[in-house]
Amino acid sequence: MTAAREVDEPTRSDIPPVEVDGVSVRFGAITALSDVSFTVAPGTIHAVIGPNGAGKSTMFNVLSGVYQAAEGQVRFGDARLDRMRPYQIAGIGVARAFQNIALSGTQSVAENLMLGRHHLTKAGFIAAGLRLPRATREGKRHGERVAEIAEFLELGDKLQTPVGVLSYGDQKRVEVARALCTEPRLLLLDEPVAGMNAEETTRMAEAIREIRSALGISIVLVEHDMGMVMSLADRVTVLDFGRRIADGTPAEVQSDPEVIRAYLGSGDEINPSDAAAGHPSETPGTRP
Ligand SMILES: Nc1ncnc2c1ncn2[C@@H]1O[C@H](COP(=O)(O)OP(=O)(O)O)[C@@H](O)[C@H]1O
Ligand SMILES: [Mg+2]
User: Which of 23, 30, 31, 99 to mutate to test the pocket of ligand 1 (most atoms within 8 A of CB)?
Assistant: First the structure.
């Protein structure tokens, strides 16, 4: 059983780097990503940021196998993510939490989190349905792990609550908890604080930090708001119009003239204090 494995194990040997190598993605005449490379070091929080239309969601979808790269490679240890289907990528321990919540609103938090564990269930649905002893034991273990992860994201007292009645911030944390329930080695987050108020943003940032330190997994965070990632990310890759324009520590990219120009040109804020103030979510829009 994997339940105890992640806890108190900050340096895990089973987490390879993610190597994005010369990736290009085209949609007809549009080049959404052009020769983008970066490396996610094991056990780090790596942010991919950029103004609207920079290619962040496209990169997220490449990492999770939803979009196919026209050129380049994405390696995760021995695995070639760019050659795998989304379910295969999920199968090697890569989990994603969506920008738009993909949960069942009528089902409880516990039921939604349990869905994240189905692929880990050995007894299978039929045995579980017949309530065979093995399935019952296994179900109990999964239930315990689900409760643990819920506790971790401060959802412990909401396990029986239907997701639909939770606040937006709580729902977003359920979405992250569901991804964690798959016991990933790599967690992909697409704009986890989009649409959140200041308090919710702070709680989510704390949760992400704790996931990294307690579970020791790698986290790729796609984010529009630069302020949000400054205190959170170990390393930042900046995209603009599908190209990588900077890659470095938060302090390095923040003072990079090309990054400043890209954000100013887009009319987006670059001020780190913005995150603390709870920058409103990205509104779909056009760039000059
Ligand atoms: N499925 C798609 N079909 C056509 N164009 C797309 C598609 N997805 C993204 N694009 C285009 O690719 C570019 C990058 O988009 P996206 O990755 O969504 O940027 P971001 O997430 O940084 O705002 C944009 O010009 C966008 O219009
Ligand atoms: Mg996007």
Answer: 30
